[in-house]
Amino acid sequence: MPQDRPDDAFAWIDAQRERRDRAGLVRRLSPRPADSPLLDLASNDYLGLARHPEVTAAAAAAAQRWGAGSTGSRLVTGSTELHTTLERELAEFCGFEAALVFSSGYAANLAAVSALSGREALIVSDAGNHASLIDGCRLSRAEVAVVPHADPDAVRKVLGAAEGDTREEAAEAAGAVPARRRALAVSDSVFSVDGDAAPLAALAAACRAHGAALVVDEAHGLGVLGEGGRGAVHGAGLAGAPDVVVTATLSKSLGSQGGVVLGPARVIEHLVNTARTFIFDTGLNPAAVGAALASLRLLRREPERAARVRTVAMGLYGRLTAAGLTAVRPDASVVSVRAPSPEQAVRWAADCRAAGLLVGCFRPPSVPDGISRLRLTARGDLTEEQVGRAVDVIVKTAPTA
Fold first, then answer.
1. Which stretch of DSSP H or E encloses residue 34?
2. DSSP conformation class of 4
3. What percent of the chain has pLDDT over 70?
4. What is the C-alpha to C-alpha distance for residues 109 and 131, in angstroms, rounded to an integer?
5. What does each C-alpha distance from 109 to 192, 265, 300 come to in angstroms?
6. How far apart are CA 89 and CA 98, in angstroms?
7. Per-residue pLDDT averaged across 232-241, rounded?
8. Taking each helix axis from N to C terminus, what angle separates 105-115 and 265-274, rounded to the nearest 10 degrees?
9. Secondary structure letter of residue 215 according to DSSP
């Protein structure tokens, strides 16, 4: 892109901004007050624990005891006894041998994907994966094959081709790549755009048929799916398997911040020694660790919270579709409602906000299929009256096609 002036190094930014303006794709920060009057169906606080008195008290107590920050990398001074306790209890709860806590779920995904692959590896990635998994693939320097969304057969074909499968039709359909020393498939357990669940059992079978590992991001599954919210991987009977690794964020169902990788002890030890987002990043702050630990213990004590989230999600879906809107049947807590265009999606979300309802708005380039939608997140602490009010606002403000 030509620059307007020789000394204007960022003239290209203005041109990109103008293109976003014309396409209706400008994004802006909207700071919220601590006591917002809006009914919130946009946050990822699925269990409603971010403001739970036990959770906020635990965060405050951890900060008072350990300090506001962790003071350094976890390999230097940033690892506290609180981190170790959270890792042990997360591993026990989710059914894995070991766990490692990171400063964010994004950092956890970058670590798991890049540290378990490398130049010699093959990664098979679902087309609907979250940006953090995609970026992990890019940073890995591995050969990456992107397969159609939620298609275990496509995963099997790619892995078979990489092993030297000579069937021409399989190679053409799967995009064969040269054989590699190791391979892994990566997938969300619940996809963030439409809220649909991955076919985990079939994915694991495809991986095992070719000696590949399976890495699953449980960001939207932990606290919602599986027995008492233990996650979709646990629900599929794959928890603790020697060839399965799980990542998750602590910022959704657990109402805090941070991320975690769970898996075999040797995998976790490998990450401690090789994962750049662990080695070179400051450890998760004590307040976030304390809050996540309190939320986890609360969920263990009240496992019905997970089922309540799913009930709210199905209630939203049923009422919206009954009113004539097009929505995707939720497998967990995300309810996706289709909009006619990006511009109408933005206006719809704005109209909802003006009527007292906060909803998410997903549009290109955030959505790989190019379809704009409102993204609703069911929360387990919503009352039936609140669910009904949210549906009324969404239906009344819906654009015409």
1. none
2. S
3. 93
4. 10
5. 15, 17, 25
6. 9
7. 98
8. 100
9. E
Residue 2 has pLDDT above 60, yes or no: no
**Under 8 Å between Cβ of 283 and 351:** no
Most distant CA pair in the chain, distance: 64
Q: What is the pLDDT of residues 161-200, one digit of tens each?
A: 987 643 444 445 555 554 446 999 999 999 988 899 999 9
Residues with Cβ within 8 Å of 315's Cβ and at least 6 positions away in sequence, in order, are 378, 384, 387
- Partners of 248 in beta bridges: 260
- Provide the whole-model pTM: 0.91
d(CA 224, CA 148): 25
Answer for the pair 300, 228: CB distance below 8 angstroms, yes or no. yes
Strand order in the sheet with 182-188: 98-102, 259-263, 244-249, 213-217, 182-188, 121-126, 143-147
Task: Check whether 371 has a pLDDT greater than 50.
Answer: yes
Q: List % helix, strand, coil for the chain (3-state, nearest 5).
A: 45, 15, 40
Q: Which burial class, exposed, middle or buried, applies to 38 when counting CB atoms under 10 A from its CB (0-12, 13-18, 19+)?
A: middle
CB atoms within 10 A of CB 20: 12
Listing DSSP states for 334-381 in one string gives: EEEEE-SSHHHHHHHHHHHHHTTEEEEEE-TTSSTT---EEEEE--TT
